[in-house]
Amino acid sequence: MNNPSEEFLEQGISQQNLRKASCMTVVTLAYQSLGVVYGDLSTSPLYVYKTTFSGKLSLRENDEEIYGVLSFIFWTFTFIALFKYILIVMSADDNGEGGTFALYSLLCRHGSLSILPNQQATDETLSAYATHGSMETWQSSALKSFFEKHPRFRKGLFIFVILGTCMTIGDGVLTPTISVLSAVSGVKLKITALHENYVVLISCVIIVGLFSLQHHGTHRVAFMFAPIVAAWLLCISSIGIYNIFRWNPHIFHALSPVYMLKFLKSTGTEGWISLGGVVLSITGVETMFADLGHFSSLSIRVAFTFLVYPCLVLAYMGEAAFLSKHHEDIQRSFYKAIPEAVFWPVFIVATFAAVVGSQAVISATFSVISQCCALNCFPYVKIIHTSSKIYGQIYIPEVNWILMCLCLAVTIGLRDTNMMGHAYGLAVTTVMFVTTCLMALVMIIVWKQRIASAVAFLVIFGSMELLYISASVYKVPEGGWIPLVLAFIFMAIMYIWNYGMTKKHEFDVENKVSMNRIVALGPSLGMVRVPGIGLIYTNLITGVPAVFGHFVTNLPAFHQVLVFVCVKSIQVPYISEKERLVISRVGPKEYCMFRCIIRYGYKDLQQENYDFENRLVSGIVQFVEAEEDSTLKPTSIPCGELRNLDIKIFYAQDHTLTDSKFKDNNIMEQSCCDILETKTGMEHSGSSPLKEESLQILRAKESGVTFILGHSYAKAKKSSSILKKFAINVVYSFLSKNCREPDVVLNVPHTSLLEVGMVYYV
């Protein structure tokens, strides 16, 4: 029997299970979170002081600049990392998940802000969809009413979230670049003859190696991540304590906020511009929140409060103490502050820590892209699950190689960690400001807090972040343009793709076949009904898709059993297998037509790697057996070897029957012929035999299953603007032709695939 602690480590801890977890489990999770969550944050001392003093800011004899910068670092780290994220934002999880999409998902469910199509009232019955809580307040009601009356603001909020997401992707490009190059550049202190080109070459080799190993999955080397980061934190904190006592024991005076005011007063514009380097001390706090789903909020809080926070503060204080006596070493202060005896061990640990920090951000980028695909905001890409034990560890080949090329381009093109730091700072501060704004909305709409509390949160933290954004924007010509260009490209791709998919859905809704027309054709639908099952994939949750109208008009025969399959996303992170399928009947019973809606959360992998055909047939049979002529009360199937399966059942007129517990006939393991043979045994044993319609469905399954997919091609209308024609006819068309095809995403066998092309104008 497995130890409960091991199960928690493999599957993570939800907020509900956290209360039951032992203290040892939380401590163990806190230790493991070091390698996954804090790799990026802990490597910031490599480049913070160097970037801050990279401009015209000069050091004076009284050390006011050093004291002022340290004061800014300490209070920025305390206010934003500790107070904002650890104490407040960590509480705004979505069923244990964190990140920008988690906050947006909470707002969509509680405030009806979702712009996803195919949303149903029945989705709110999902266990992960729970919106009950404190009583509605007039502030939350007014804000929800405002968004309902003004769809443009809902669209604007969506674009705002996409902006934060694109900056996160930019973070995935800049983190490996600046971390690896900063770590490797330390070797020039010992090998002074080493040319800069060789430092760049070594950095590029490490980056290529890092991205080349991604397809193996992080779980294969994850056991090394935590000890590396723990060793790194202990190293830099110990060196910090050494430098404090050796060079300047009075450096702790700089923790007074008075030195921040003195710094701005004495340095003026140059001091304000240098704040773009100070903000690099909190790079990684957004990753800390985004990786919440792998651990628990308590374990992350414990690790940060008792280890990460004090170690990093000591490291920054120690480096400031060294700088106060060595003004000339400002551009190489981190490695210069390391005692000679331990330089090479610390250099090796620093390089490994930079790789670990880069790995965490790369994995987070994969996760973000996957979520965007689920919400129709990014073209379909190949998503590989790299761990059979740890859900959520994925690898996306196309994104991996694009990120690698971008990292190499930035490394070779800039060759300067100061310019990279300017770019990095703008990306980080933008994401943090997006989180602050979303968090203020969550406080009103979800937590039902007074508007004064949300405004205070927005003003306190938003003003700090806007200050850093303004300093970073000033550095746009010196590297800050990189995240802006990357964000613009990815935002254009996401917006155009989402626009095209939305118009495609609108076309499908407007051109769906009338049920009156289908019923008028009679049970045979005006064709010969041949044995077999036809699965027609559609975007519609109601009605008959236009692609079926083409079949009715042009084909002489069709399958005996028709199933309209709709795959849709819901704004919850995960949906349990027992709640995934929703089965209903389409039209009268003698037409033998059904609808199956497959529901996914935004962090679920939309791939049917299990035996989907048999699972679907099993669900339809259970639906038929449960359905009485009155369509009011379900019946169960008494069978021998059974397993529990919860299926939500609906009638064609959208009358909910009930949540029934059925027992699955092990259709996964045995063929339909075996099930048919059990009928005789059931009759002899006195059990109720399967209905004739159920047997007909099982026989149809034995005859074969055909998958029918409609291929829609978008074209801009002749009256459209040049910009729209370029977006639809060039960009969207290119993305559609080069992304993963729907049959690949849905894992449809090519031998059973039938495709129909359609053109729609937008």
TrEMBL record:
Q: Where in the cell is it found?
A: Cell membrane; Membrane
One cellular component term (GO) for this entry is:
plasma membrane
A molecular function annotated in GO for this UniProt entry is: potassium ion transmembrane transporter activity
* Cross-referenced InterPro entries: K+_transporter, K_trans_C, K_trans_N
The keyword Thylakoid is annotated on this UniProt entry: no
Pfam families linked to this entry: K_trans, K_trans_C
Q: Which residues form the K+ potassium transporter C-terminal domain?
A: 531-760
* This protein's UniProt keywords: Ion transport, Membrane, Potassium, Potassium transport, Transmembrane, Transmembrane helix, Transport
Report how it sits in the membrane: Multi-pass membrane protein
Origin: domain of life: Eukaryota
Report the residue ranges that make up the K+ potassium transporter integral membrane domain in this protein: 29-519
Recorded family membership: Belongs to the HAK/KUP transporter (TC 2.A.72.3) family.
| Protein name (record) | Potassium transporter
